[in-house]
Amino acid sequence: MGRLDITVGLRNRVNIRGGRIRMGGDETWIEVGQDPVIVGRNPACQVVVEDGKVSAVHVEFVATEQGVKVRDLGSRNGTFVADVRVGDVCISSKCTVRLGATNLEFEPLRPEKVTVPPIPAFGPLVGHSEAMRKIFDRMTKVAPTDLTLLIGGDTGTGKELAAKAIHGASKREGKPFIVVDCGSIPPSLAEATLFGHERGAFTGAVDKHKSPFHDADGGTIFLDELGELPLEVQPKLLRALSERRVKSVGGSSYKQFDVRVIAATRRDLVRAVNQGSFRSDLYFRVAQVKIDLPPLGHRVEDIPILVRAMLKDLGDEQAYERVSNQQLERLMRYDWPGNVRELRNAVAVAYALGDSNEEMDVASHLGALVEGGMQSSSGPISMSGSGVDRRPFQEAKRDVLAHFAKDYFSKLAEEAKGNVSEMARRAGMERAHVRTYLKRHNIDVKQYR
């Protein structure tokens, strides 16, 4: 069958429209390029404003093809362009941007032709879109260093996979890669979980627990969902990262560690800083380099190469020939609420249930796996006795999968005693995804606790 050309429309050079900013009356201009320029009161900002009405991390400027994007970062008093309060806007002509009582002058610069790096993959990550090629280039440059990295992105975009790929391309390859899920740590045990504890240090501490920072010594520690870490523990983590040593709960001395720190979050940590739920000094400490993974819906041109790579991972790259152009086009029109993880699930199910001699129908498995409201209005499928379900095959199959999901997560909730984090661990999914299934199938985990 004819294949969809996965390289159509790829551009190797783009025009970036940047600019420059300066505070009113100041002679020094700061150029705005593709790397974000953050303005605020915090000393770690690229432009520091000594104005009590300006938030610690107030506004971000970054050059794009459309002009310089101005993004308010959840500031207390807002960001104004030409006296209009803005949240996210592109500017391309001379104007004044007001923050609190401070005015920033903006001037556009001539468009600059920028080369998009021709890097189609980084480790197991693949993509031909401009966004991903730029990210792969950034990962290639940052991997050999020991810079602390913050990976942002929605659930299912591949943050942990990206962290593992960076670890695998670093000088610490072959050393431990330790994952700490900050979102699943009970607040009362956060300090002991991060830094370790001695036997008898608190009620329930029947054994000594080693800090994951020491487990990862020589390698990389991945702090997943860092934004969920309790506020009271954040200064202690900042101190540990700054001094590269920790003291266990109940212990009497500090012990050094040598790790590379990669953190990830699906939350907007800058907005959390301005809301008071995340410390600005910890944010700047972990975000020496920041990479934001785009939602799959923003890079649908990568779907063909992703499908092919996923089938290769399943051990049958040739099965890609059974995915028709019509199938790929349907996938590219979908909105992808579950991102790359949703696509991987759909490909795996389609491959497992499909006939090797027939076209692979990936798209038909999306509704049953992620979307709500896909159960048939004609009631449960009947397969008893000699009765035959007269509905269309795909509709009947969706019902089978929906009933399977309800049964699976009900039993999982019972086995995990209603602990959603434990359910996510056993299912190999993120907690947000598990909660989606629980809500869709009206499964109340409280009854299993």
The structural class is alpha+beta
If helices are DSSP runs of H or I spanning 4 or more residues, what is the number of helices? Answer: 14
State the major sheet. 6 strands, antiparallel
Radius of gyration: 25 Å
The shape is globular
Mean pLDDT: 86
Number of strands: 22
Could you outline the blueprint of secondary structure elements for this entry?
Blueprint: E1 13-16, E2 19-23, E3 30-32, E4 37-40, E5 47-48, E6 59-63, E7 68-72, E8 79-81, E9 84-86, E10 88-91, E11 95-99, E12 102-108, E13 112-115, E14 121-122, E15 125-126, H1 130-142, E16 149-152, H2 159-168, E17 177-181, H3 190-195, H4 212-215, E18 220-224, H5 234-243, E19 245-246, E20 255-256, E21 260-265, H6 269-275, H7 280-286, E22 289-292, H8 303-313, H9 325-333, H10 339-353, H11 366-369, H12 393-415, H13 420-427, H14 431-440
Helix pairs in contact: 8-10, 12-13, 13-14
In short:
The protein is an alpha+beta fold. The protein has 14 helices and 22 strands.
How would you characterize this protein structure?
With about 450 residues, the chain is of the alpha+beta class. The protein is built from 14 helices and 22 strands. Strands 3-2-12-11-8-9 form a six-stranded antiparallel sheet, with no helix packed on it.
List keywords for this structure.
449 residues; alpha+beta; six-stranded antiparallel sheet; five-stranded mixed sheet; 22 strands; 31% helix
